[in-house]
Amino acid sequence: MPVPKVHIVVAGTGPAGLIAALGFAHAGFPVSLVGPDANASDGRTTALMNPALKVLERIGILGDLRPVAAPLKVMRIVDATRRLIRSPVVTFRASEIDEEQFGLNFPNNVLNPVLAKAVEASPGIKWRKSLVTGWSLEQDAATAVLGDGSSVSGALVVAADGRLSPAREAAGITTAKRTYPQAALVLNFGHRVEHGFVSTEFHTETGPCTQVPLPGNRSSLVWVVEPEMAKELAALDDAALSVKVEERMQSMLGRVSVEPGRQIYPLSAVTPLRFAAKRVALVGEAAHVFPPIGAQGLNLGVRDVDDLIDVALKNQSDPGASAALAAYDFKRRPDILARSGAVNLLNISLLSDMLPAQMARSAGLGLLGGFAPLRAFFMREGLRPGSGFAALAGGLREQIRR
Ligand SMILES: Cc1cc2nc3c(=O)[nH]c(=O)nc-3n(C[C@H](O)[C@H](O)[C@H](O)COP(=O)(O)OP(=O)(O)OC[C@H]3O[C@@H](n4cnc5c(N)ncnc54)[C@H](O)[C@@H]3O)c2cc1C
User: Fold this and answer.
1) Which of 111, 314, 360, 400 has its CA 20 to 30 A from that of 7?
2) Predicted local distance difference test score (pLDDT) of residue 348
3) Sequence-ordered alpha helix ranges (H) in 27-144
């Protein structure tokens, strides 16, 4: 394969931007990365599924993350609403689809520095620790003007500059936006009972409350509540908050002790009307923002990066040309719209007091809980888009042969 010489500009140094810079450099493209130092004080954790882990392995950072990660072997949904119609508990086991684990859960304050260290060590990446203050998007090249007045140019801009994405705005891509009357309280906690590598998502009237395993008898928690309630909970002392978390978890993990550090994230949804234009391709939260349900966000961001590199390799002479951008848009559109649509719908159905919404959610979860092939389909689709359909088609072929 000839080595690509065309320059790529990656804007943004969150996880999506750092992974994009490493991925493009690994594929042989010279990369200019623009953005501040990586955030090493993010107390959240990120669950990445097996396909995303393969990408981390390819760019050479999975080995450094394994010691701080916990495997996710079982995922459980518990209907903790007090509504008239409630769903049975639905349990997804990785072993049901012949996988050892669905993925790994890492602390972001390790993930981000490990990614940043790999970027610093990569000879193919020039990291300009500055913000982009302006964009000039021309017919044959894109140029970013930086805070110090200097500039960098490339054939393709990878916009990994987050939910407000100035690069998206410069490309004239409009978005559909929604704010939710919800905020996520995020913390980590220790517990008496072993988690057994099970993650449990409690569905409540204010949103999901999700526990995800960490190494040892520790877990992370993303508790979605009304914004006022998030503030009240965060203001409690450790002992009082520990009791609240234990109650919310139905004492499933025994006595709880919350660790120092609480963060609050207001929830919203942002969906761009296009995923690329004028030499700019959107990845990560520049391309999709939705509530943190079912660990989808960065997994989708890694797929954006992977697909963009694939398109760039097929259009090596000019990966930012209109045809290449149209191919990227076409490739990402179904995955992004399906994931963000499903997560937003589930979130709205939780908030809704309307009986039909509750019935639909409960019937859907009931069907999933009681019908193993459907569960397997959703688990495969959850890991890799299209693989659930592929397994169904394989099963049908097998039956026809018999
Ligand atoms: C509570 C919570 C839990 C989550 N859990 C999971 C999970 O378990 N699994 C999962 O897959 N996803 C999860 N997500 C989603 C995941 O966190 C996001 O998808 C991910 O952080 C998005 O990363 P990003 O790099 O796209 O954006 P960001 O992290 O927002 O990074 C954007 C970057 O762009 C930079 N920037 C902005 N403007 C400019 C500019 N002008 N010039 C240069 N740089 C600029 C910023 O400084 C920043 O570095 C969760 C989200 C939340 C809120």
Assistant:
1) 111
2) 79
3) 50-58, 62-65, 108-121
Ranking 7-21, 98-112, 319-333, 375-389 by mean pLDDT, the lowest is 375-389
Residues 114, 35, single domain; the answer is yes
Q: Helix, strand, coil proportions of the chain in percent (round to 5)? A: 40, 30, 30
Tally of structural domains, the chain = 2
**Residue 87: inside a domain:** yes
**CATH code of residue 230:** 3.30.9.10
Mean pLDDT of 38-46: 93
Query: How high is the pLDDT of residue 205?
Result: 85
Residue 83 sits in the same domain as residue 229: yes
Range of the domain at 34: 8-42+51-66+107-176+269-347
Any atom of ligand 1 within 6 Å of the Cβ of 46: yes
Distance 295 CA to ligand 1 centre (A): 13
223 and 145 in one domain? no
Q: Is 47 in the pocket of ligand 1 (CB under 6 A)?
A: yes
Query: What are the pLDDT digits (tens) for 195-246?
Result: 999 999 998 888 889 999 999 999 999 999 999 999 999 999 999 999 999 9
Higher-confidence position of 373 and 246:
246
Residue 389's identity, in one-letter code, is F
Amino acid letter, 271: T
Tell me if 203 CB under 6 Å of ligand 1: no
Tell me if residue 97 falls in helix, strand or coil: helix
At residue 274's C-alpha, the angle toward residues 268 and 276, to 5°, is 115
> Within this chain, do residues 12 and 34 fall inside the same structural domain, yes or no?
yes
Does the residue 295 lie in any domain?
Answer: yes
DSSP labels for 298-335? Answer: HHHHHHHHHHHHHHHHHTTT-TTSHHHHHHHHHHHHHH
Which atom of ligand 1 has the smallest separation from the CA of 222?
Answer: 1
Q: Is 34 in the pocket of ligand 1 (CB under 6 A)?
A: yes
Buried b or exposed e, range 380-396, using 16+ CB within 10 angstroms: bbbbebebbeebbeeee
- Amino acid type, 388: G
Our mutation pick for probing the ligand 1 site, out of 180, 285, 293, counting the most ligand atoms within 8 A of Cβ, is: 285
If you measure from the C-alpha of residue 226 to the centroid of ligand 1, how many angstroms do you get, rounded to a whole number? 22
Distance between Cα 77 and ligand 1 center (Å) = 25
- pTM higher than 0.90: yes
CATH number of the CATH domain containing 327? 3.50.50.60
